Amino acid sequence: MELHILIDGTRDLGGQLYRQLSEAIRSGRLTDGQQLPPSRLLASQLGLSRKTVSDVYDRLGYEKLLVGKVGVGSFVQTPHASPQRRHASTPLASAQRIARWEATPTPLRRASQEEPARYAFIGGRATPAHFPQDEWRACMLHALRQGGQARGRYGPVAGLPALRAAIAGHAAFSRGIHCTEEQVLVTSGAQQALHLLALTLLEAGDTVAVEEPGYPVARAVFASQGARVVGIEVDEDGLIVGQIPDGTRLIYVTPAHQFPLGMPMSMARRHALLERAQQLGAIIIEDDYDSAFRYEGRPEDSLQSMDRYGIVAHVGSFSKIMLPELRLGYAVLPQAIVAAVETVKYLSDCHTASLGQHALAKFIGDGHLLRHIRRCHDIYAGRRERLQHWFNGPLAPWFRLVPASAGFHVAALAQAPLDIAELLRRARQADVSLYALSGFYHGTARHEGLFLGYGAIDKLDIDTALALVLAILQEIAPLPVNVAASGSAP
């Protein structure tokens, strides 16, 4: 890579080079430890004599801005007290728009990036140790070989045909999805799928119905497009369809495993939702984020499989099943919006990175994904059992679990007034990360309680962590003697 230096005219050539290199080092544009081109190469690139460049390097070395290593080269040595970089002070025409983006909420961002405690009940994360590294490595090597055949070319906007076909087959097998591979759009995670659908379907002022409580990132995505986002209450049967207002264009739901409370949407409520959306001409986004793991009862049909009107966009992700850093998800689109969403995808990022797509297609096709899901199912079932033991036993006086038959998180509702913030603070001091349900409400929380993810905490650690939580509860919210005596020991 050429070093960005501009030599003007034929006067003071060494001075020009010195001033530009000195300013680049002092301003931080050239970073500490960065290697400069050899003097012979830089002289050739700039049309200077090698002696001119060598003299400048010597001068910078004398000023301790460069350090030479014999047989290796010249390296930047940043001064200890570098001045602040200069920032543009020109008033920008887009200043108000920039300020609005700066003020836009980014929910769950801090929780996803902060260092978790020793015992973390964080949601949406799997245990990396259980991921089949050897099988994935073999699939990546296969992907490198495949990529070599098409290197230097952009991939299909909607995704590689092999992966789209693999996703269509997997979704049909596991969730009863009815689709062709042409309806499958490969995305960089489920969040991008939500963003693409919002860009395609919404204009400023349009009404979007979301669950309350619900996934705050989805709400933020829709609001960022200028939509009027309306929270619709949920009960034990899921979203209360009768509250969806007239004029709604988009409805976002998590019917298989309501986020964050956990209950599934009843069949009657699903039929009612489809009818209401059809009357409104609205698209339903079905976020099927973690229903691959089911522990009891018969599997529920996906909303998309019940759709007779062509109005359900089914969104899925491999981040929670596999690893979040893979950033691979998909949307199964209604035929009526396929072309429009593909156009938006093209304008957004052209296509999702091909290497991971080749690997995932191989991973699914060879059966590794289903085997991984089956292995994790048994692991998560054991963790879920330990949570049920504690919240149906020693912690029952303080909390009640919301029944949930799928996924890898549960919600625990407070049984009596309880200082949840104090509980979270003291738990963190004990190296336990807990999360409040109130963070998933846009307005005033109707229920106080805890959101407990168990994808990233080992089964044995659950007992240790909840024993600490029990001790904290006995300190901050002690029970009457007769109630405390009735609690079972862990």
Automatic annotation (TrEMBL):
<dbReference type="InterPro" id="IPR036390">
    <property type="entry name" value="WH_DNA-bd_sf"/>
</dbReference>
<dbReference type="InterPro" id="IPR036388">
    <property type="entry name" value="WH-like_DNA-bd_sf"/>
</dbReference>
<dbReference type="InterPro" id="IPR004839">
    <property type="entry name" value="Aminotransferase_I/II_large"/>
</dbReference>
<dbReference type="GO" id="GO:0008483">
    <property type="term" value="F:transaminase activity"/>
</dbReference>
<keyword id="KW-0808">Transferase</keyword>
<keyword id="KW-0238">DNA-binding</keyword>
<dbReference type="InterPro" id="IPR015424">
    <property type="entry name" value="PyrdxlP-dep_Trfase"/>
</dbReference>
<keyword id="KW-0032">Aminotransferase</keyword>
<keyword id="KW-0663">Pyridoxal phosphate</keyword>
<dbReference type="Pfam" id="PF00155">
    <property type="entry name" value="Aminotran_1_2"/>
</dbReference>
<dbReference type="Pfam" id="PF00392">
    <property type="entry name" value="GntR"/>
</dbReference>
<feature type="domain" description="HTH gntR-type">
    <location>
        <begin position="11"/>
        <end position="79"/>
    </location>
</feature>
<keyword id="KW-0804">Transcription</keyword>
<protein>
    <submittedName>
        <fullName>PLP-dependent aminotransferase family protein</fullName>
    </submittedName>
</protein>
<dbReference type="InterPro" id="IPR015421">
    <property type="entry name" value="PyrdxlP-dep_Trfase_major"/>
</dbReference>
<dbReference type="InterPro" id="IPR000524">
    <property type="entry name" value="Tscrpt_reg_HTH_GntR"/>
</dbReference>
<comment type="similarity">
    <text>In the C-terminal section; belongs to the class-I pyridoxal-phosphate-dependent aminotransferase family.</text>
</comment>
<dbReference type="InterPro" id="IPR051446">
    <property type="entry name" value="HTH_trans_reg/aminotransferase"/>
</dbReference>
<keyword id="KW-0805">Transcription regulation</keyword>
